[in-house]
Amino acid sequence: MNRRAVLAWCCYDWAITAGPVVIDTFIFSVYFTRSVAPTPEQGTVLWSQALAAAGFAIAVLAPLLGAIADRTGRRKPWLGVFTAVAATAMATLFWVTPTPSSIPLALVAMAVAVVARELAMVFYNSMLPGLVPPDHFGRLSGWGWAAGYLGGIGCLVLALFGLVKANPPLFGLVGTQDLENIRAVAPLAALWFAVFAVPLFLLVPDRPATGIGWRRAVIEGGRTLVRTVREVRRYRDVAVLLVASALFRDGLATLFAFGGIYAAGSFGMSFQEILMFGLALNTAAAVGAAGFAWIDDRIGAKPTIILALSALLGFGVGILLVHDKGWFWALSLGLGVFIGPSQAAARSLLARMSPPDMITEMFGLYSLSGKAAAFLGPLALGTATAVFASQRAGMATILVFFLAGLLLMLTVRVPSSPETCESGLPRSDRMPAMRDEKCPS
After folding, report:
1. CB count, 10 Å around CB of 419?
2. Are the beta carbons of 258 and 44 closer than 8 angstroms?
3. How far apart are the C-alpha atoms of 50 and 46, rounded to whole Å?
């Protein structure tokens, strides 16, 4: 195992999480609903619609690009392009001033950033099996998620003490007029992403180029994608895994996107309080992701996912029932511990079940399955919020996605064959019969 490459791979998780945490969840989304949109409710609906549109674009692009990349071999060029696009789009959000006329710029830039980050993750995730042996997939996936949460904490701390609460913000580089110190968190997150993504490009090995041209790669990738989709549909367990993970990941993505908005609207939290809440929640999530990294390899990814989803449901119900800010804090921190394990275990399970020569395509399908349903979460939340004029009612829809994912995961049978565990699904039978057992360590 190349320890420098493993550390650099985890560093990319550290880098990319700054955007979802600082922009999508805790600061810029709250700024948009409070200061840009006419009302918080209208802002919530507009934000959810933009996220739904981004999810549709990802569902269309991710699997096709993954299949093409598997034909061309290399992943870093794709990763570099989408990293640059995402960082540029995030930086553009600085020019979203606190007036309704800035709504189109805010929604377009945010949607482009979300699409580019998600497409980058297709190629990033597909590098995991090449870095460690199969009995360490759970650990590496968990370490990556933990690094991501810690990166979110680091960027939030810098935003809090360098921009929001600093006087003058960032040593006078920006002021407070038109909430410049709040808007500046967007280019800060973009710079954070760009800088900490560099180690991956320097230290993580890439697959060699196959020599296949772009035109041929597009044609072959499209044909392979169609064939793979047909094969996945024939084999129940892989298909159910993709659907189940799509549902609970959609619930988590919706939670990330609207958690800060809910804290501000239902509990009256200020920007400073939301930042502190984000720091605490990400700390809890980092502890959970790191702690469950070994548990995944020990008991299997499926039991880890089921345990995490059960806990998310329990804490989620409690959060919706309480009105006291103290109880909201306590229950949210409990929920935070189980956010990372469900996602990390889903990633490691797919890595174990994917054939080596189709790993990028399989993670493209992973994104397809997630984003094909991704519009449902924001749409359900936005609709419930509009119909009931209540953010609490909108957040309740997230629990439906957790429950549906949990019920489907209970029926998934995971591979137990040593051949499958060691080298992915055989080419001659890419989706073999499954038994409800974990891979031997």
Report:
1. 11
2. yes
3. 6
Question: CA angle, 246 as apex, 8 and 436 as ends, to 5°?
Answer: 90
* Least confident piece of the model among 10-24, 26-40, 247-261, 366-380: 366-380
φ, ψ of residue 249 in degrees (nearest 5): -70, -35
Over residues 290-331, the pLDDT tens digits come to: 888 888 888 888 899 999 999 999 999 998 888 888 898 999
Q: Which amino acid is at 115?
A: V
Superfamily of domain 3-429: MFS general substrate transporter like domains (1.20.1250.20)
Q: Residue 17 CA to chain centroid, in angstroms?
A: 8
182 sits in which H/E element: helix 180-183
Residue 164 CB coordination number (10 Å)? 21
pLDDT tens digits along 47-104: 888 987 887 888 788 878 877 877 777 889 999 999 999 999 999 999 999 999 999 9
Q: What is the pTM of this model?
A: 0.77
Q: What are the structure tokens assigned to 154, written together?
A: 């680091």
The domain spans of the chain are 3-429
Structure tokens at 128: 């995991």
Phi, psi of 416 (to 5 degrees): -120, -5
Cβ–Cβ < 8 Å for 430, 419: no
Max CA distance (Å), the chain: 64
Give the pLDDT confidence score for residue 120 in this predicted structure. Answer: 93
The whole-angstrom distance between residue 348's C-alpha and the CA centroid of its chain comes to: 14
